[in-house]
Amino acid sequence: QVQLVESGGGLVQPGGSLRLSCAASGRTLSGLPMGWFRQAPGKERALVASITWSGGATFYADSVKGRFTISRDNAKNMVYLQMNSLKPEDTAIYYCAASVGGRWQSDWGQGTQVTVSS
């Protein structure tokens, strides 16, 4: 099973930017679509963005479309989420996951906390 470690979160003012990183180990991400999820307090975890292995196709939740960009570096086994024009409602713990056999897999562990507040 692939191990995924998220980083790059922090406290940022509304309108600011952050870049999240996801480092994979244990297996290559070869052939695997990847995604970023987030979970805010009291809310269910939700898919924010996803990207195919080639990077040729992406998906964004309506709430982040035009502000977030997902990308990946297959040579480095890394996935990124560039977040611009951040809003307070983007505050959540962010997790990355790999789609294996059509199922999203992650340890849903620590994630990385993003807090948008003035």
Number of strands: 11
N- and C-termini, Cα separation: 39 Å
Mean pLDDT over all positions: 95
What about the largest sheet? Answer: 7 strands, mixed
Helix content: under 10%
Q: If you had to describe this structure to a student in words, what would you say it looks like?
A:
It is globular, with a radius of gyration of 13 Å. It is mainly beta and 118 residues long. It has strands at 3-7, 10-12, 18-25, 34-39, 46-51, 58-60, 68-73, 78-83, 92-100, 103-105, 112-116. Strands 2, 4, 5, 6, 9, 10 and 11 form a seven-stranded mixed sheet that branches. It has a four-stranded antiparallel sheet with strand order 1-3-8-7, with no helix packed on it. β7 and β8 form a beta hairpin.
Helix and strand topology:
Blueprint: E1 3-7, E2 10-12, E3 18-25, E4 34-39, E5 46-51, E6 58-60, E7 68-73, E8 78-83, E9 92-100, E10 103-105, E11 112-116
Parallel strand pairs: 2-11
Antiparallel strand pairs: 1-3, 3-8, 4-5, 4-9, 5-6, 7-8, 9-10, 9-11
Summary, kept brief:
The protein has 118 residues and is mainly β. It has no helices and eleven strands.
Search tags:
0% helix; 11 strands; seven-stranded mixed sheet; mainly beta; four-stranded antiparallel sheet; 118 residues
